[in-house]
Amino acid sequence: MNSDSRRAIGVIIGLAIFAALSVIFIASHEKAVPVFNGHEMVRIKAGEFMMGPTESASAWIKENTGQQDWTLSSKAFPVTISNAFYIAKHETTVAQYRAFVEDTDFKTLADRGYFPVTWDRKNKIWTRQPGYSWANPDFDQEEDYPVVCLSWGDSNSYCEWLTLKAREAGIIEDGWVYRLPTEQEWEYAARAGGTTIYTWGDDPNEAQFYANVLDATPKPDGEELASVHFDSEDGFAYTSPVGNFKPNPNGLYDIQGNAWEWCINDYFDYPGCNTSNKFLSREYKYKVLKGGSWDNYMGSFAVTLRRVGKPWFASDTTSFRVVLTKEE
Ligand SMILES: [Ca+2]
Ligand SMILES: [Ca+2]
């Protein structure tokens, strides 16, 4: 056997070992990430990060949102994520929520007459309009679009159902739960180690590649565009199918844009707040929404920006994504 032959065999053996290791890795990875009701999950390692905007980023957000009350926190502070957790690749879809409603006959707040806030095109105001709900927002949605018009409670109820069903199906063990992410988990997973204003960097012109935002796409009903919007056209005047844009470095799609995402914890001022990953009482006044939506512009997409909503608030911009974690 000449040296070329030996080298070729060596390469083949090397590739075979690499392929075998890859299979083992993929198999163990898949085993560790159970898919249930269509939720593909990404494992996020434990670690530390600086939560919240730097002072200059905070000033930029205020300048570009005019919403100072959304950005009460002005200083970044360290947060420890003590345990690895799983987070859904995608926002929860219409189809996934439909499975829950059909199994339980669950009535959302909107189904019980507390209608979501939607845009009144005639009077040009955001207001509660009768008739709209997750099954009938005020625009067309397919089954793979993010479910919207949900309150925090409507979202939380889905997570509780998902946990029960996954346990019954033997997908997860007792002690594991699906729930909404804490704000800390959401921001940690969204930033993926980055320190830029958006998950994709600092350039708002890149939004068209990474997020369904308030842009220059014509409205299907001929409604005039908002006075401020991104100049690009991302192709969607309202919501878009989940996973349509590029993911963040953790492989999470629509973590910015498409629909706001409920977090489980109460809103609190920081720094000076509880800096662990624990969420506070569920009965407090406000919950946190993160990530911006199809109806937001510029500063609202800052990954550190926080929006608040009472637990019973819902609009055609609010949805959620689930995490899977060990119960604390
Ligand atoms: Ca859009
Ligand atoms: Ca989103």
Structural notes for this entry:
- This protein is an alpha+beta fold and 328 residues long.
- The chain has one domain (32-326): Alpha-Beta Complex (paralog of FGE (formylglycine-generating enzyme)), CATH 3.90.1580.
- The chain has helices at residues 3-32, 55-65, 94-104, 152-168, 183-191, 207-210, and strands at residues 41-44, 47-51, 77-81, 85-88, 117-120, 125-128, 176-179, 260-266, 287-290, 307-309, 318-319, 323-326.
- It has a 4-stranded antiparallel β-sheet. The chain has a 4-stranded mixed β-sheet with strand order 10-9-8-11.
- The radius of gyration is 21 Å and the shape is globular.
- The chain starts with a helix and ends with a strand.
- The relative contact order is 0.19.
- Residues 8-31 and 274-282 have low confidence and may be disordered.
- It binds calcium ion (2 copies).
- The site of one calcium ion (CA) has 8 residues, from loops.
For the record, the CATH architecture stands as Alpha-Beta Complex
- The CATH superfamily title: paralog of FGE (formylglycine-generating enzyme)
| Spatial sequence of strands, sheet with the most strands | 1-4-12-7
Query: What portion of residues belong to β-strands?
Result: 15-25%
State the helical fraction. Answer: 25-40%
What is the residue-averaged pLDDT? 84
How far is the N terminus from the C terminus?
61 Å
Compute the number of structural domains.
Answer: 1
CATH fold annotation = paralog of FGE (formylglycine-generating enzyme)
Number of strands: 12
Net shape = globular
Count of runs of 4 or more consecutive helical residues: 6
Poorly predicted ranges: 8-31, 274-282
